[in-house]
Amino acid sequence: MIREVSKILKRRDGYGPIKGMENWIFGIFWVFIRIFLSVSTVQARPSKCEECHQKVTPGIVKDFNRSKMAKKLTCATCHGKSHMSENDTDKAKLPTIETCKRCHAKQAKQYMSGKHFLGWIAMNAMPTTHMQPSPVNKGRKGCGGCHSLGATKEAKKDPYYPKYAMDCQNCHTRHAFSVEEAREPEACMTCHMGFDHPQWEMWSTSKHGAAYVIDRLLGRPIEDRRGPRCQTCHMPNGDHRVMTAWGFLGLRVPEDDKEWWNYRVTILKGLHVLTPDGKFTERLDVVKAGKVVRLTKEEWQAERDRMIKVCTQCHNINFVKEQLQQADMMLKEADKIFAEAIEIVADLARDGIIKHDDGNPYPDLLRFYETPYEIEQKLYLMFMEYRMRTFQGAFHMNPDYSHWYGWAEMKKTLVEIKELAKEMREKAGK
């Protein structure tokens, strides 16, 4: 270090020789800077894990080393130390939410109190889940690809549960585990798109989505982009809970609007949460566990108030409440049509034209496409595709999506169900 200082003191610049105590201090400071820079740029020697995986899975090594975690953690932190060679790969531990929880307790607690953590429970509420081929769920090539969340002890005991659970890794993809990646809307795109919940399509083609993407293309930093992204509304201040007022099924119990409540009763019978005579069934417990509906007015209002708080960061509160109320009414109108369609199909069963093994005249809507009747296939599409798009499109501020992909299809399908029911009655002589 003294030699370095001497070199600096002997150096001349345009202002003459370096002299005095101040220059000694400057010289020592400069040497420290150079030493710091030289040390910080030295590449750490690869671990034994990296030496091997650089040959077999180089992409994983590259992702890990570009992550912030590589500065503090080793492979063994998450995978354990038991796997040491190609002959004991089965001993490598697969990280779960409990692994992440050791360092990220706050985020893990938030996540485990929200709906994403209940992904597997919600899917298991469907009576036909275990009827699906193994690749669909266990192989993660269908529902299990997104719903392999919530690695609870109960889920792990399920023989249909995928080996590779996702949890945190669904958004912070391994092995980079990037916060920056998880903050972008594309992190949500894989699961929230397509048939029954096309939030990606709704948001990305809305004015909110367009404004955000344009600002990103213009190079503005994420905090300065105008349009809200998924995380802005559903994860304010980084809250990993992610809940909404209506829930996936768009239902709340009780409903003060008597007219609307009558529609809801019919829908709940179609979900087999209510018996034909209006009594709750055991399926209510599964609905509760999956948090796919709101079961008290207070619970619903708390989530609505939370969203109002988010929206009013950009919009006037009167505008916010009016827009949310209009979206509520789109859901009510969709429920009106849907309830009428359910009763038409139930009447066919009451008259013996359609037969259900359990004797319940109401079709089990949660069986989805596992039905032999064309008319019930249309009802399932009305439920899972068109009704969802009607109210989800409205809340995502996409009028075209809500109307033409949702509401218009609801109206069209009701006509088709009426015509098909008429034909079935004529064919049956009733």
UniProtKB/TrEMBL annotation:
Keywords: Membrane, Signal, Transmembrane, Transmembrane helix. GO terms for molecular function: oxidoreductase activity. SUPFAM superfamilies: Multiheme cytochromes (SSF48695). Gene3D superfamilies: Hydroxylamine Oxidoreductase, Chain A, domain 1, Hydroxylamine Oxidoreductase, Chain A, domain 2. InterPro entries: Multihaem_cyt_sf, Multiheme_Cytochr_ET. The keyword Nucleus does not apply. The chain crosses the membrane at residues 21-39. The keyword Membrane applies. It comes from the Bacteria. This is Multiheme cytochrome c. It comes from Thermosulfurimonas dismutans.
